């Protein structure tokens, strides 16, 4: 089947990241989509600017309409962002019969109703997974994964900059202004951070989430929005003492009288998973009447995470374009003929760190024997705890944490440790994964 | 458009839950799917057994083949579970040209390769979201939401019974056998809990996750599986002292040499979100090369959560059956003509609990004045902290947590509190949500 041809508007962070992901993972993506996906043309405001991606094989132009009007292109990716002339570009692409993928939350929140109506008239798809919570597939989860539910409410940490600031204030006792300056230096916050810290960016995203959760029109102008600029270290500390964390949440809740749409700083009990989402990470908690609470967590911004969502939308469009039985979402994610028989490793070839607990006689030299056996098998020790022997017992528990080792080495070492005359019973072993 | 007709095999927990959700949320589901979805026929082994659902309007039969061979039925839901005769039923439904939705993890893990091949031959869909992690849309997230990524590894708490046991052991210092007996009494664990505590159930689910993550055939027989029966309170305590939690994880990791597939008890640093997934809840952490780590959390079992996934699959099939432009996944989740203009509430009609911080003169009666104002507005106080005044200052900070109240009442009360001669400056207010 012939490749799907993609044109990109904007080669900045998101556009460049998307080019990189589409190239780096081209083989894996074609195995999933059933067709090759190639970028043939892109527009960029400043042709001389250094980029994060190679543009080899891509015709780069200064005029977005060169992309929009290219008859060869099947899908236009709008990755410029912001409001303004972008709306006209998207409408022009739709009028040309192109499918559109966008990462633009303000465009969808402010003009989505009009854009979707035009797309329906022309029979094209407009996909916008990347517009909310970056790489987290939250649009898909709510729109498709929870489609059997009445959504009761949702609450999200949907602005990474704000969450970074609140996390630093809590963990390091820093002041708002100080952390904001750092966030700007790190490139998390824009030179004008108003959209982030005053909750406008979060309100754009909440507008979209509320619409797909409840089946209501997009209506950004009705979101109550309060920023985090007035939160002091004092409040962060008091909240902590009371057992709470302060998070900048977007909340949409269906009540008997209507729908609450609000973005504001919020105390949350510290035992909730979402209270422990820190730094620039995003998370959305969704409460459905059937499924109960579900949470979706991941990176809410950045070149590659946002590209992850953009490319997923491109794959969705590609699968839909050819939705005969062989080209629907394949059962095992990859096309049947693309399933590969990669070897499954035997357990003794696994690599893992270990927790070991053994009982040994309380006399000199035992620990030396054990550590020598581990060293002989090139197993490094991360920590050792030797406990006092319990009353009336001669055996003392020794607990060891090791660094990552080959399971075969560990098996051999444990057999030798268990054979030591000073060690009684079996070694209890539990694998340890940092999941970092 | 005429309704989609569904036949159900099995009216136990999952089947009964599915009937309930399809009926309770019929209007919402039709708004999303673009067609009515109705259950016309169902089979049940024991026709006299009490059920969790009403069977009004459903022809109930003892023979599953009455459902499978009914020419009116578009989609067959296999909700019997287990291996054995169920495989033949699913193959018969496929041979009859029915689309199939199943919640059966062992069926897919053991016979999925064969079933999917037959489904492709017949051009029908076999959907199995409910087979892994109950209501969490994890199949969809990996198969569609992360389709731009090379998945590097995934790790999941995918057996609720095992997680309940480990959570109780840690939080309450209980013994394995004791908690297992309770889990059986509560109905979390089967009379024969081998599949849960020995990791076989988790291995079935890991088989499926690994296949869709890496594009490899389903191969349950190659999963290394170790149960939690040997974990003692001692190990749980030592792990905690070292800064770790013990979780029963299913791990699939792609290495240069091959793929590790393993289910075993695992120490995880306590700061990781997944280490804080407690009780019967499930979570899957997926690491993609573009998106980085993402986590999906929710109920892994139960009538309604599992039904949530089954119904989502039914909606997916329904949308695919009629995938002309108007019947694809709609932009705003609900069909354009089903978008409703539910009122968005003005902020003074929001309901929320509050954290309040105010500065007051350190003299008797101030607190009484404040609490009287709150009482006059029917605002109940949950907690009060009065701090010592800082050195050289007369004002003392007072922190209050209130119960849920109408925002209008809070606005009025705060205006009155700020007008008190003994209170200086503005009241700092932050909303508090338990998100329970």
Automatic annotation (TrEMBL), chains A, B:
InterPro entries: ACT-like_dom_sf (IPR045865), ACT_dom (IPR002912), Asp/hSer_DH_NAD-bd (IPR005106), HDH (IPR016204), HDH_cat (IPR001342), HDH_CS (IPR019811), NAD(P)-bd_dom_sf (IPR036291). It is an enzyme of class 1 (oxidoreductase). The keyword NADP applies. Pathway: Amino-acid biosynthesis; L-methionine biosynthesis via de novo pathway; L-homoserine from L-aspartate: step 3/3; Amino-acid biosynthesis; L-threonine biosynthesis; L-threonine from L-aspartate: step 3/5. NADP(+) binds at residues 9-16. The active site is at residue 205. Keywords: Amino-acid biosynthesis, Methionine biosynthesis, NADP, Oxidoreductase, Threonine biosynthesis. NADPH binds at residue 105. GO terms for molecular function: homoserine dehydrogenase activity; NADP binding. Its EC number is 1.1.1.3. Pfam families: ACT, Homoserine_dh, NAD_binding_3. L-homoserine binds at residue 190. It comes from the Bacteria. It catalyses: L-homoserine + NAD(+) = L-aspartate 4-semialdehyde + NADH + H(+). Residues 355-431 form the ACT domain. GO terms for biological process: methionine biosynthetic process; threonine biosynthetic process. CDD domains: ACT_HSDH-Hom (cd04881). NCBIfam families: PRK06349.1. Belongs to the homoserine dehydrogenase family. This is Homoserine dehydrogenase. It comes from Methylomicrobium album BG8.
């Amino acid at each position: 089947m012939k490749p799907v041809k993609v044109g990109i508007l904007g080669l900045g962070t998101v556009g460049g990241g998307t080019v990189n992901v589409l190239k780096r993972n081209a083989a894996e993506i074609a195995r999933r989509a059933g067709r090759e996906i190639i970028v043939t043309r892109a527009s960029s405001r400043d042709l001389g600017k250094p980029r994060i991606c190679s543009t080899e094989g891509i015709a780069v132009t200064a005029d977005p309409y060169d992309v929009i009007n290219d008859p060869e292109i099947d899908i236009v990716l709008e990755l410029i962002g912001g409001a303004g002339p972008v709306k006209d570009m998207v409408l022009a692409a739709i009028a040309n019969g192109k499918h559109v993928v966008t990462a633009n939350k303000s465009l969808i929140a402010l003009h989505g109703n009009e854009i979707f109506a035009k797309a329906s008239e022309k029979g094209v798809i407009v996909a916008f997974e990347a517009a909310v919570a970056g790489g987290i597939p939250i649009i898909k989860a709510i729109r498709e994964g929870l489609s059997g539910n009445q959504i009761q409410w949702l609450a999200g940490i949907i602005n990474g900059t704000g969450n970074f600031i609140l996390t630093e204030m809590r963990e390091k006792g820093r002041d708002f202004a100080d952390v904001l300056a750092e966030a700007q230096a790190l490139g998390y916050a824009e030179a004008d951070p108003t959209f982030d810290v005053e909750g406008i960016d979060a309100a754009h995203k909440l507008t979209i989430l509320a619409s797909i959760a409840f089946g209501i029109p997009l209506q950004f102008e009705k979101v109550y929005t309060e920023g985090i600029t007035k939160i002091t270290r004092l409040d962060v500390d008091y909240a902590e003492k009371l057992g709470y964390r302060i998070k900048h949440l977007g909340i949409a809740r269906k009540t008997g009288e209507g729908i609450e749409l609000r973005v504001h700083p919020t105390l949350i009990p510290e035992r909730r998973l979402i209270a422990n989402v820190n730094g620039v990470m995003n998370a959305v908690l969704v409460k459905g009447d059937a499924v109960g609470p579900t949470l979706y967590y991941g990176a809410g911004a950045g070149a590659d995470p946002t590209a992850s969502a953009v490319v997923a939308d491109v794959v969705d469009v590609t699968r839909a374009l050819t939705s005969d039985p062989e080209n629907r979402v394949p059962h095992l994610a990859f096309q049947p003929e693309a399933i590969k028989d990669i070897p499954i490793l035997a357990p003794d070839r696994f690599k893992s760190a270990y927790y070991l607990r053994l009982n040994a006689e309380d006399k000199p030299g035992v620990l030396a024997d054990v550590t020598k056996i581990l060293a002989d098998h090139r197993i490094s020790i991360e920590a050792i705890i030797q406990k006092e022997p319990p009353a009336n017992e001669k055996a003392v528990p020794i607990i060891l944490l090791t660094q990552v080792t080959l399971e075969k080495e560990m098996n051999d070492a444990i057999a030798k440790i268990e054979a030591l005359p000073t060690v009684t019973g079996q070694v209890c072993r539990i694998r340890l994964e940092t999941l970092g």
